Sequence to fold (641 residues):
Amino acid sequence: MVEMVSRPYASAFEKFAAGNPDILCLSADLTSSCEIDGFRDRHPDQFLSMGMAEQNMMSFAGGLGLAGFRPFIHTFGVFMYRRPYDQLMASIAYPRRKVRMMAFLPGVTTPGGMTHQSIEDISVMRSIPNMTILETGDATEVESICEAADSIDGPVWCRVLRGSVPRLFNTPIKVGEMRELSAGDDILVVTSGICTEEAMRARAALKKAGLSIRHLHLHTIKPFDSKALLDQIASVKHGVITLENHVTEGGVGSLVAETMADAGVGKRLIRLGLKDTYAHGGSRPYLMRYYGLDALALVRGVEDLVGQAVDITENDLDAARVDDVHSLVKAEAL
Amino acid sequence: MRNEKTTEDIALGIRRRVFEHSMRNNGGYLSQACSAGEQLAWLYNEALNLGPPILPMIPKPFEGVPSPNNPDYHTGAGYNGPAAPEYDRLFIAPAHYALVAYATLIEVGRMAPEGLEMFNQDGSSVEMIGAEHSPGMEVHNGTLGIGLSTAAGLAFGRKLRGETGNTWVFMSDGEVQEGQTWEAVQACAFHNIEVKAIMDVNDQQCDGAMGTVMEVGDLRTKFTNFGAHCVEVDGHDLNAIRQASQEDHEGKPLIILARTNPFHAMSILEERFPRLHYVRFKSEDERARMNQSIAKDLGVDPVDYAH
Fold:
């Protein structure tokens, strides 16, 4: 049974930031939704309410960076970059301010529909010079995201999970490294974020079906160690499958595709994720099934890659954890 | 640094340099020198408490953008002196005023006159739209609306650090069309940030007179309602500007609305009204007439731009 951790960011951020006067906590009216309400109440001197005004928040954070502070800014991912993209570029990315953008609700982890789902943020951030991109896949990574982000000499984009988060790993994020979760020589599966848990659900059944799966989890998407990935790709026979909580264009799938193309690797690649589509509102399991981001989608991808059916059904997969729709650890339905 | 010239002389010097540059280069930001001459002269000659420049008088060529592989990168803020706690900081929010700002640096002895000859030359740091690395600039402000927010963040940070220097912004009135300006003012008011701004209210924007492009209403009332302490003055009246800057604005941003004439001291520019954003001469005849007229207004010889 997977251990579930309640609101890991809340305690992790407070432990990290409290007592460090150079760390300021900025919020754009989503304070409890980003699990920093306790920090606000207990450390008001380090907390700044910026209101629903993201354009000002980005440039303001840039100004704080200029004054030598390391602001952690908190809001949902979409609000962090869609409206204030210009400010993000001019005030944070270009001058390499040490601003840490804590982007909550990545991809389909919200029932809020298009306006709340950041499905192309990695693609956008990857194309921004000076940007570092981290993505959390479990409670341990959420607990270590603050230290990891703050180790970067420049701006950092962090996809942060909230609420009830499974603990899959027992070591913190080491920026620039990737986690090898299983060794195998048939297929390389590369996942990130919430999709890693899905791939872990599918692995036992795939093994039972006679397939040897090498599974990599990425928490650092930029900068990226192409050489390490190429070594992993070289050690599998059939090819690579990527699975991500993001559109396949510009995300992890593109990252792997570009790495392979640049190196002239002649193996097949199947990219799973949102396929040139927006999502709509719904629960996470429903959305992951509907848009093909879950364990079963990975199994179908494996069948495609090896060219044969593996006779795995939903019943053969490890149990999916099911969150209460109105869990106490969520700030609100969003 | 000791004031060697009067602020009036510096304003006149700014206009002369921008005029001469524009004549030689068949165009330039002439109107901005007309409207903002007094404001920039006053800031540098009287209002700002700045240390001596820490960058060479003749600007170095472009040395690359910020990146982890460019450790020697520096901004153009060094022309305003070091970023020490007791010194003031200035952001030129409308970066297209750069020509006027560079002329100001020369007039106050912070940049060599040769610097202006590098304006808009390939490979130069003296860029047409003032960049972060351009003389006198500390941040990018080519996007209107971001200057006040950045200054607010810096001012808040400096307050937390107990720094005594002021944080100033030179703004333009077109920026009030951007929602970010109002976000910044409300944030300053809410967090008691005493950032100081002087705004060149010349009623001009790229497409023409602001009232014909996007009416913005009563700025003083709007700024006051958003929580600023706002004073409106004649932007060519130095005494009025001086007095406005002394107004008590405890716990609030100070916004000085400097109402200006976009062809002040270059009356012939009125012929080009309302398209004053960047004046490029339409014919040799126009160039010659403007050369004669503006030279006369400014009390200098016409520019021998043929050579």
Observations:
- Chain A has a mean pLDDT of 95.
- Residues 198 and 290 of chain A are 14 Å apart (CA to CA).
